[in-house]
Amino acid sequence: MLYTHLLFASPGPTIFQIGNFSLRWYGLLIASAVLIGVNLSIYLAKKRNIDGNSIGDLAIWLVLAAIPGARLYYVLFKWDYYSTHLNELASIWQGGIAIHGAILGGLLATIVFAKLKQLNFWDLTDVVAPSVALGQAIGRWGNFFNSEAFGSPTDLPWKLYIPSNRRPPEFQDQDYFHPTFLYESLWNLGVFGILIFLFFRSLKSRQPLRSGSLFMIYLILYSLGRVWIEGLRTDSLMIGGLKMAQVISFIGVAAGALGLAWIYRSKSKVSIDS
Q1: How far apart are CA 84 and CA 32, in angstroms?
Q2: What are the start-end ranges of the H helices in 93-179?
Q3: Could you report the per-residue pLDDT of 146-177, keeping only the tens digit for each?
Q4: What is the pTM of this model?
């Protein structure tokens, strides 16, 4: 039992600290995900004959929109707490960002960027979607180091030890929980693999995927995984008695399916104005 406890327990959120400066795993993982994602998207863009410099410029827009969007989304649903802890509004290194907020912020930024640069919005989403899935797979490990985003109590062999100060009050007598961060990381890694496979297969196909298809497939696959994983979590953002992430994920599945149908019913290359 002691070996299992030590095997799958977070070492803590901080890598090292010197004086007032501390390097945290959460921030390092987000920065790594962004760096890897940008370079991957530039590589994929070149395969689609899209200027790589445009993707580099878009990346700046995405970071400036997605991270604040993710934080704002989370804070709004936790306003009862943050309204009395205003000094923590920007403390994302402590955790507390929501991927759905990042996706919404990123989509808005991409729409504006595509309009200003006169680029096809759906082409941009296709080369960014695999990077988003991979970034999510990497970023979820920040939850591990922060001992957050875990599920209900479990005795499974891959159970995760959570310190008592990080447990919900009703589970203070429980030590081990579902590592839902791991489930989602692995799921997103699988989504990334499928998207990359479809991307390169499409390049060689006589009937390549239509513009926007990869993004819609990402939306469906990610949302399907989030629905069941969110059902295990104990710290979900709520709206009434509903888990908000599940509600948004059901909408994401429907939007992705309808989007694919729309793309393939369109006779010409789709654009954001279609």
Answers
A1: 32
A2: 99-117, 121-139, 141-146
A3: 999 899 999 999 999 999 999 999 999 999 99
A4: 0.89
